[in-house]
Amino acid sequence: MFRRGESIQVKSPDQLAVMRRAGLVVALTLQAVTAAVRPGVTTRELDSIARDCIKSNNATPSFLGYHGFPAVICTSVNEEVVHGIPGERVLADGDLVSIDCGAIVDGWHGDAAVSVPVGEVTAAVLALSAATEAAMWAGLEQVRAGNRLSDIGNAVEIAINAAGDYGVVEDYTGHGIGTSMHMHPPIPNHGKPGKGPLLKVGMAFAIEPMATLGSPTVGVLADGWTVVALDGGSAAHWEHTVAITESGPWVLTALDEIHL
In the CATH hierarchy, which fold is given to the domain comprising 13-254? Predict the structure, then answer.
């Protein structure tokens, strides 16, 4: 996915504006899919809603066919961390489902994820999801010109650790994004600050912390895609695409116009 020595893509203001259009499609799609989440719904039904929403907004799914991925969104339930394949699984009361979505507009990508409770979810799982979301925002705050790349993961790690005794998944990372969905550099959700490339105006990244209630050790199921917490503990995953502007971070995949 990432090539050693590759440079970080820098976008013009006009190119970032197109990425914002792609990001808004992602935001609208996640809004529509989230509204459909309830006990008794299959993950395939959620994928169908996402497919229709992306198409109706004159965009193309980023995920469908990506390295052979067979769906428009990823739906990861409970101990599934990321990359779950939508299918006949029926969502049940008490589940937590991560929904990850990407869209392309005029060759530019947006990528975001939310974790959505199904019915009545335990307080511990809700707290995990809230802590992971807060850690994402802490990371987004660091996406500023003049910072170093590792400042992002450091902020994510500090936020999750401060929220509780959660596992920070280290095997999967955030990433650069632009003319491809996954671009250099990888962005770990942990580490010391002040390391790595200097952040510059025009760069764009997908910041996506993943955390677990138990051990952060993960494995991949036989389908070759679905990443699970090996101890069976619940997992949460949140993501936004963000660009660096002269005035600070611009969250490209939010419904509202958010500048941090």
Answer: Creatine Amidinohydrolase (3.90.230)
